[in-house]
Design goal:
Helix content is 91%, strand content 0%. By secondary structure, the protein is mostly helical.
């Protein structure tokens, strides 16, 4: 049973991996867009910050679920 709890918590933490990759790709695309259209920098930056916040929220949810799995299923 302990092994399954550890595997479940590990899978929940993988949400952070997806968030990290997503933020990296979004930042790369935002830098490309700003380089092509410098006059739209403010709009691109605001959209990037909103997207990064949502992706980080996903990572935090995964972390919290992993902690809850470890604490409540022990």
């Amino acid at each position: 049973m302990t092994t399954l709890i550890a595997v479940g918590a590990g899978l929940a933490v993988l949400a952070g991996l997806g968030a990290g990759l997503g933020i990296g790709i979004a930042t790369s695309k935002a830098v490309d867009a700003i380089a092509r259209q410098p006059e739209a920098e403010n709009k691109i930056r605001n959209t990037l910050i909103l997207g990064c916040a949502l992706a980080e929220a996903t990572a935090i949810y995964g972390f919290v679920v992993a902690i809850m799995i470890i604490i409540f299923l022990r």
